[in-house]
Amino acid sequence: MSEPDATRAELAPLSHEDEPVTEEHRAILKAQKVASLQNPPGNHGDIAYQMLLLEQRLEAYERLHREEMAELRQELSRLRRAFLEETSLQMRAIKPHSQE
């Protein structure tokens, strides 16, 4: 592996499973995308590097999607609980009046 390829490998870890997606990560991904698009065609190492960057971006977007979906599910669960509590209280308030 040549020195530039080794440097690229160090800067581009294969998996980001444990890292949260932040605005900083998005900025890094955007900068990597711009840099990868500026490489001249015909260089197989650059194509492989671009593929690696795209795979990493895809992983980051998938992770972001999972995190956002989890947040939406939590919010929906919270609203369901609140709704059920409210309707339960209303039903309790109605029952004694209807039994009289």
Question: Which helices and strands, and how do they pair?
Answer:
Blueprint: H1 3-11, H2 23-37, H3 44-99
Give a verbal description of the structure.
By secondary structure, this protein is mainly α. The chain has one domain (3-99). 80% of the residues lie in helices and 0% in strands. It is built from 3 helices and no strands. Helix 2 (23-37) runs antiparallel to helix 3. The longest helix is centred in the last third of the chain and has 56 residues, at 44-99. Mean pLDDT is 76; it is low at 6-16.
Summing up helix and strand content along with how strands pair, one would put the structural category as mainly alpha
Number of helices in the DSSP assignment: 3
β-strand amount: under 5%
Poorly predicted runs: 6-16
The total number of structural domains is: 1
- Describe the largest sheet: none
- The sequence of SSEs as H and E is HHH
Instruction: Estimate the helix proportion, in percent.
Output: over 70%
Rg, Cα atoms, Å = 25 Å
Termini separation (Å)? 86 Å
Give the strand tally: 0
Structural shape: rod-shaped
Average pLDDT value? 76
What's a quick, concise take on this entry?
This protein has 100 residues and is mainly alpha-helical. It contains 3 helices and no strands. The protein has one domain (3-99).
